[in-house]
Specification:
Layout lengths: L4 H75 L3 H4 L7 E3 L2 E10 L6 E9 L2 E9 L5 E4 L1 E3 L8 E5 L4 E6 L3 E6 L2 E5 L2 E4 L4 E2 L1 E5 L3 E3 L4 E2 L3 E2 L14 H10 L4 H7 L3 E4 L5 E7 L2 E4 L2 E5 L2 E4 L3 E5 L5 E5 L4 E4 L4 E5 L7 E5 L4 E4 L4 E5 L9 E5 L6 E3 L4 E16 L3 E14 L4 E5 L20 E4 L7
Parallel strand pairs: 5-34, 6-10, 6-32, 7-11, 7-32, 8-12, 8-33, 10-13, 11-14, 12-15, 13-16, 18-21, 19-22, 20-23, 21-24, 22-25, 23-26, 24-27, 25-28, 26-29, 27-30, 28-31, 29-31, 30-31, 31-32, 32-33
Antiparallel strand pairs: 1-2, 2-3, 3-4, 8-9, 17-18
Helix pairs in contact: 1-3
């Protein structure tokens, strides 16, 4: 057989070219496969990391929700030590923001008032379980005027001028003859001018200065130890959280009609503006931005069927003026009203107005409690007005001006009684005029009033 030399040589060249191409193509394919595999690994790793981050965020949300739910259960136990007896666990799941929470268990710790509780929260399918022991916390609201100051003994924390009076009174008798059972506890100094009169004792870490005919009828202690008070503001977050997540604002439209204006947004609150007229509000927890009661309006807070909690969080806060009244009708019960003033929210009662007086027990201050948070937000009774309340706002100043009055007690940063005849009178009552027994609602974590002592702080 004859084979052309040219054809044979060409075929050899083609074979060698194919071999060279194959030797390049194979590594290229291997490299492409390797790169593809690496890309898949990177993508899978990225997806896994993303999934882990999402689950971690959900877990964090669930943990926060569980802790918030725990705070709410603590608050409910503090306001009613029989809470878990009357509402035994488990409780049905409920929404808290974008999460779901539920009380799984609640068992009493033997021979104590404490309860061992279990809570579970879920955020988009990710759960967090939390167990804790809760028990009522008793914060004592001193029977007197306590001025916390800022640690400077030279700062005048109580300033009284004109014909101002500090004293005490028996609610069963009235205020015709103020007594001398009240005491002032100042982590700083006290200054009296004009005919200012303190009917009681003054205990100061600084000095007590009286000018002219001003006078202190009781004992005076200067350069003494500072007075410590319970951390009342620690109560506020639970009140505020419950007011946002679980309030009764739906009742406000029926009660006030167009005078109630809900404000869209996550705070779940609104404005209440009452100008004249007579109004009534029943038991519940209400979250309000700003409240104005003016032009002779009368607002009755009806606690005959249960307590009322007002959480106020706006820049103005709660204003009562122009001959208006905010009063309490306990209906023969011992239920009261708790007013929580958020940071920056104030309480100003002026223009011959009144706040906190109970209809059938008109001189008792214990039906109204006020908790003030933070340093800003005025708290004042002025212009011939009167306030009946036990006040705890340890970082805020208090003003009682003109011929106005404050009946009850107070823990504040400082106090000024300025003008013609302002009065601050301590409610002498203890037994029988608290907000109730340990099983009843006593406003902030079952505050217990007690008489100030001569030789020691409250």
């Amino acid at each position: 057989m004859f084979v052309s030399p040219v054809f044979s040589a060409s075929r050899d060249r083609f074979d060698r070219t194919d071999l060279r191409r194959g030797s390049v193509l194979l590594p290229t394919l291997v490299l492409i496969v390797a790169i593809g595999s690496m890309c898949m690994v990177i993508q899978m790793t990225h997806l896994a990391m993303h999934r882990s981050a999402v689950n971690s965020h959900r877990f964090h949300r669930a943990a926060l929700a569980a802790n918030s739910a725990l705070g709410l259960q603590q608050l409910r136990l503090e306001t009613d030590p029989d809470h878990f007896v009357l509402r035994p666990a488990p409780h049905a799941p409920c929404a808290m923001g974008g999460e779901t929470v539920e009380l799984l268990s609640a068992t009493r710790v033997e021979e104590t008032e404490a309860w061992r509780v279990g809570i579970r929260a879920e955020a988009d399918g990710v759960s967090f379980a939390l167990g804790a022991v809760l028990q009522p916390v008793i914060f004592r609201l001193p029977h007197g005027l306590v001025l916390t100051g800022i640690g400077d003994p030279a700062e005048d924390l109580l300033v009284m001028n004109g014909a101002s009076v500090f004293g005490s009174y028996d609610p069963a008798v009235g205020i015709a003859s103020p007594g001398d059972s009240g005491s002032v506890w100042a982590n700083g100094s006290v200054e009296l001018t004009g005919t200012a009169l303190v009917q009681g004792d003054v205990n100061a870490s600084g000095w007590v200065s009286t000018f002219g005919p001003s006078n202190v009828t009781g004992s005076i202690e200067e350069e003494g130890e500072e007075t410590e008070v319970d951390p009342f503001e620690e109560l506020a977050p639970a009140f505020i959280a419950e007011a946002i997540a679980n309030n009764d604002n739906a009742l406000l439209e029926d009660a006030f009609g167009s005078d109630w204006s809900p404000v869209p947004g996550p705070m779940n609150h609104g404005d209440l503006l009452l100008s004249g007229g007579t109004h009534r509000l029943g038991a519940g927890v209400y979250h309000l931005r700003d409240v104005s009661v003016t032009s002779g309006a009368v607002l009755t807070l009806d606690t005959s069927t249960g307590p009322i909690t007002l959480v106020v969080s706006g820049a103005t806060g709660l204003s009562v003026d122009s001959g208006s009244t905010v009063r309490i009708d306990a209906g023969g019960t011992e239920h009261g009203v708790m007013t929580v003033l958020g940071a920056g929210s104030g309480l100003v009662v002026q223009g011959a107005s009144s706040f906190g007086r109970e209809l059938s027990d008109p001189w008792a201050s214990g039906y109204s409690r006020i908790l003030g948070v933070g340093e800003s937000g005025a708290i004042a009774s002025q212009g011939g007005s009167s306030v009946f309340a036990r006040l705890a706002a340890p970082r805020r100043p208090l003003l009682v001006g003109g011929s106005s009055e404050w009946y009850g007690s107070a823990v504040v940063r400082s106090a000024a009684l300025l003008g013609s005849e302002p009065k601050f009178l301590i409610d002498e009552s203890i037994d029988g005029r608290e907000m109730g027994t340990t099983g009843d609602y006593e406003v902030a974590a079952r505050w217990r009033e007690h008489r100030a002592r001569t030789q020691a702080g409250p």
